Amino acid sequence: MESNIVYVPIILAVLGLVFMFIKMSWVKKQDAGDEKMQSISKSIKEGALAFLNAEYRLLLIFSIIASIALFLISQYVDTTHWIIVVAFIIGAIFSALAGNIGMRIATDANARTTEAAKTSLPKALQVSFGGGTVMGLGVAGLAVLGLSLFFLLFVSMFVTGEGNFYEEMTIALEALAGFSLGAESIALFARVGGGIYTKAADVGADLVGKVEAGIPEDDPRNPATIADNVGDNVGDVAGMGADLFGSYVATVLAAMVLGNYLIRDMSATTQFTDAFNGMGPILLPLVIAGVGIVASIIGTFLVNIKDNSAKEPEVQKALDLGNWASIVITLVASWFLIRWMLPETLQMNYFGEGLQEVPSRHVFYACMIGLAVGALISTVTAYYTSLGKKPVLDIVKNSSTGAATNIIAGLAVGMKSTFLSVILFAAAIYGSYALAGFYGVALAASAMMATTAMQLAIDAFGPIADNAGGVAEMSELEDHVRERTDILDSVGNTTAAVGKGFAIASAALTALALFAAYVTFTGIDGINIFKADVLAMLFVGGMIPVIFSALAMESVGKAAMEMVQEVRRQFKEIPGIMEGTGTPDYAKCVDISTKAALKEMILPGLITIITPIIIGLLFGAEPLGGYMAGVCVSGVMWAIFQNNAGGAWDNAKKSFEAGVEINGEMTFKGSDAHKAAVTGDTVGDPFKDTSGPSMNILIKLTCLVGLVIAPILGGHSANTHADKTAKEIRVEMKEAGGDQVKAKITVKTTENGETKTEVKEVTGTDEEVKKEIQKHE
Amino acid sequence: MESNIVYVPIILAVLGLVFMFIKMSWVKKQDAGDEKMQSISKSIKEGALAFLNAEYRLLLIFSIIASIALFLISQYVDTTHWIIVVAFIIGAIFSALAGNIGMRIATDANARTTEAAKTSLPKALQVSFGGGTVMGLGVAGLAVLGLSLFFLLFVSMFVTGEGNFYEEMTIALEALAGFSLGAESIALFARVGGGIYTKAADVGADLVGKVEAGIPEDDPRNPATIADNVGDNVGDVAGMGADLFGSYVATVLAAMVLGNYLIRDMSATTQFTDAFNGMGPILLPLVIAGVGIVASIIGTFLVNIKDNSAKEPEVQKALDLGNWASIVITLVASWFLIRWMLPETLQMNYFGEGLQEVPSRHVFYACMIGLAVGALISTVTAYYTSLGKKPVLDIVKNSSTGAATNIIAGLAVGMKSTFLSVILFAAAIYGSYALAGFYGVALAASAMMATTAMQLAIDAFGPIADNAGGVAEMSELEDHVRERTDILDSVGNTTAAVGKGFAIASAALTALALFAAYVTFTGIDGINIFKADVLAMLFVGGMIPVIFSALAMESVGKAAMEMVQEVRRQFKEIPGIMEGTGTPDYAKCVDISTKAALKEMILPGLITIITPIIIGLLFGAEPLGGYMAGVCVSGVMWAIFQNNAGGAWDNAKKSFEAGVEINGEMTFKGSDAHKAAVTGDTVGDPFKDTSGPSMNILIKLTCLVGLVIAPILGGHSANTHADKTAKEIRVEMKEAGGDQVKAKITVKTTENGETKTEVKEVTGTDEEVKKEIQKHE
């Protein structure tokens, strides 16, 4: 069993994929409703697939260029094998596939959810959540499968047992980083492109349809309405799926790299061995991920309601139950896995403190920190963005004095929400590192991500319900159908906000783990910001998320403007639209959103990928580390700020729909305060759906690019190792009374890229200590 | 001469102060206009002084608490003498005095400028710029005088020549840091309090007066109009004065600390000596500052126009001429001073590269970089915020589709403006460090700040002209008077934007120099963000500017709300205000602004000061360094973003006053697009006048607090030194063909807190190299 453990995650991943297919065929077997509903659903699906296909064509070009670049790197650096190109391509394909599966099922599930809602709310939940489950399992299954298979392949290729284990494994893991890079690159474009698409369509549909023509949301007379619904799918479903696919893969990869580093620390005196072919710490995160898939499947069975007259709280409770069940199962399993797969005592090299003994249960505690912080940050996010809570009510109150005060209040809410999130995040870094070094940090992230399948199922159910409502509206069904889908949609909005908190927390921890892996890959001692070049790059890195956000926001503005003009044109030129006798040209609007999104995603995407390469090549490994840290610090702030401000504005606007009390007066839709709130929501739209979520991928991808080019920078390629030997002796002496001195001798020997550290403390006369020191020469 | 060089800056500072008094009495001698004008001017002055006095009472309490804390530190740490308390108090008093002088002259000069504008524009410029000159010279003179006198005192107290020079000088400079801390603390409260005051009054006056009652700006019927004009003075004059006073002192101090560090590097083998009592590198920045005062005085003579029908460009040209003249004079003088006061070759310790020889002219090149980057960042700022340039026109264009698109465009402009500014700033760090280490960085900042007197004269002239316009309006003078003051005001708006760019650039470079000084004070090796605690604090630091901004913005909101209610109450309850028969209760509005500003400035102020202390004490010197870096990186981004977004919104709104073309149509004041632009401007007000400028002080004060508590953290107090001796030998070996090896031996000895580094390269057989190494034991 132990020596074949790598097959366990493969089996679990396949299990997840099988269950996905069963669920998928179940959803597809459901009644898709009458002809009109099917036709609307088909339009949405076609629009979404048209976008994806156009996107893939563009990404094909990118992938070819990136592959050539990677191939050149592999030719130049001995520790990078050309197989990384294959890993990169498969990573890109898997990521695209994960988004594609999610998108297809989501567009299949929408009309079926509407049809189910005709008769029963529990059934509607089952169908929409079933769609989400398919997506979640697709993402998680493909991620674990891809990682495991490639790991198996690379270990058989590179870890021959002839050379140094750490060195050989590093080559294998560097190749595996290609898989992660492929996945994350596609995620970036999917997120940015999808984000621009969805907001351009949304703003365009709202500004002309709702405001100028005065027709309700999702009205079939609005030419942009199909594009709007397509946008929900390409942004919230495909974008989110690719994002979490990328996080998931990157987290597990970083944990594996740090597991290898742990093995090196533990091999200081004799080579580390265990029952898992000496790879226990490397395989652990992979196995936990596999177990997380099964835990998620079990969790999905718990998500159901019985009462047809249930409201939001019951639906929310059902989702919470499933979520917590899968988390608890994963946690319990981790306890046993850690006991089984890690030695009881680990030796870890802490900075400035040398090798320390760490009991393996500390790794479990680090996992608990990861899960706790993930949950707490999600809670903080929910607090700052939920209906009826103080932050949203503050914005509502400030809407009464106009748009300006509404905007100021919203910005302030977003900014203030960084406080608790960052404190929690800093505590997670501090705590999990103190417990189990950077391996602990990476495992904290892995634990948080282990139930990705479940998280994504909950996330993806929201847009399906949203679309189901759209189908109901466009097909002009009875009111009770829309009421039922609205209940699901409303819960979906809350889960979306919480999901965004989770996505940020996981991206930040992932980036951190990648950052740590980067340092080990380059072989530098650390990243000292007291060096001017490192400090300068810290500032440059801090600027990138700001510029990225600005570009993304402007792109939405430009694309929305085109959409507005097209919708105006159609209203003017196509006769009988408003009377319902003429049919709007939906496809034209879909086309505009598609083209604009693709055009506008290129620049921010290239900035993200090329800047770290330039900095690494021009300035070297340590300044690039400073740049990465700058991107992470600034990116986390701007992600939290933009997501939460956007979410809060959205719900402040929604507060007026049910009516809200301002200074003792009930205020409703259509009031001046409501109009001010609509302005705030429009500002918040690109914040929360385009630039905000893109920050996650920006920080992860920056660190991944760094990781992949690390071998070029660190100069630890095989041919430079051969003749590099260094010995460093550090002696600290203190007087210890009388003529006695107390000396701490640290000897650090580096040979063939492997560093050993010995520490010895001696007390004696000056002469005695000197002799002791000479022994180490 | 050489050995008494310290008296040179004292003499130059006194010269500056004498010239200030001459200019002051000249301004006061001008005709203050008719009774009505004098009464208005008096009301503004009384309101401003009432605010300052209330502020001083509050700051007295703060200063007493801070003094006690400092005294306790001085009792606990041997290298901190209780005299630091005196330095702190005098620093606080000088800063308050600088603000007070500026405020008094500004409020004296406003009506006199109006009176002069009745007859002549050149005269009006002379009076308003004369007022600015008084303020600039007051700030610069007091700063150089205070620093020089305290330095003289502390050198005579602590640098006895008996002990180690570097150690003794460190104690003297640590005491001097108290002066800087006092100045910067007052600056923080002045900036934040003034910023809240001015925007509360402004928004209150605008919302009820302009929007609800439909009366023009500065109309005497508006109860908040005096408060609004007072606000211009307490925010833009006193706040800006205290801010630059703080920057000026902190920059020179940091350069002196790094000068001392340079002396230590150069004393590696034998104690450094020169004609300036062995203090040349320490005194250089002080002398350059003194020369800068004289250069500024010369520059002021060049600021005048001849033609009474001159327009904005001529006025701008006159100011530019004076500004550039003083910069060029300072630069030329620096060339000679550097040649005279520094040895021709400096030895500097670069990280990882050991001691390097640096020609002293490289320090001059670093100064040039400082001046160039200061000018370029100002230009970038001007581009992003000026009328008629693309960024502002973009916002104007986006105003046509409503407030939401205006806001999005403004946010995007602010965000995009970080790009060039940060690249320039990073280049300045990189370049000046490469040229002359951190001493070069500090001298770059010093050179940039040397002409502070001139910069401030140009900055302060704006609000005086603005107020002069207000006096003209309230006194119902003829239109041509207002037209003339409007020309000055308009130029003042541009110089204000440029001045803000300058203030950010200088604050950022100052913070950096302080950061470097901090590392030398604590005696740590560097700040390694690969350590989890340092990284965690980097994130916490990055969050502080965001929270600070949120608090400042909310404070403005709250205070403005109170003001709105008061103005509404007066319109309702005092009969005949609108008809001009009743007199509004101006004092009540002034009082509300004052109280609100003082109440609201406390929390952000305390966060700034207390957080680094807590982090330092809990986590130690290196994590605090991470925190400081986080505050700086994030603070610089948010400062640039907020200042430039605010400035751009302001001018986008102003564009409509003269009419602007949108999509081929001329659009004017009162249009829907203009209303959208007003919303943007209201959002931008707290950005550009409250939270944005506060960032400067936040980053400087954070680093200063760190510097002052450094001795507690670094453990380099005298009694721990005595028994601390460390020797570190680092050997790097490379095969050099045959049996030869090439070894680089680095021996670092630390004795009594002094570190010597010897580097030797040997090539020979293994045996020979071993022998060589043993020699160093």
UniProtKB/TrEMBL annotation, chains A, B:
InterPro entries membership: PPase-energised_H-pump
Enzyme superclass (EC): translocase
UniProt similarity note: Belongs to the H(+)-translocating pyrophosphatase (TC 3.A.10) family. K(+)-stimulated subfamily.
Domain of life: Bacteria
Topology in membrane: Multi-pass membrane protein
Subunit relationships: Homodimer.
Function: Sodium pump that utilizes the energy of pyrophosphate hydrolysis as the driving force for Na(+) movement across the membrane.
Site feature (Determinant of potassium dependence) residues: A496
Main subcellular location: membrane
Protein name, as recorded: Putative K(+)-stimulated pyrophosphate-energized sodium pump
Regulation acting on activity, per entry: Requires K(+) for maximal activity.
Region of interest (Disordered), residue spans: 751-777
Membrane-spanning parts: 6-27, 58-77, 83-106, 127-159, 245-263, 283-303, 323-342, 363-384, 502-522, 534-553, 601-619, 697-714
Any Pfam family hit: H_PPase
Cofactor(s) needed: Mg(2+)
Organism of this sequence: Tenacibaculum platacis
Subcellular location: Cell membrane; Endomembrane system
Catalysed reactions listed for this entry: Na(+)(in) + diphosphate + H2O = Na(+)(out) + 2 phosphate + H(+)
EC numbers, comma separated: 7.2.3.1
Keywords tagged on the record: Cell membrane, Ion transport, Magnesium, Membrane, Potassium, Sodium, Sodium transport, Translocase, Transmembrane, Transmembrane helix, Transport
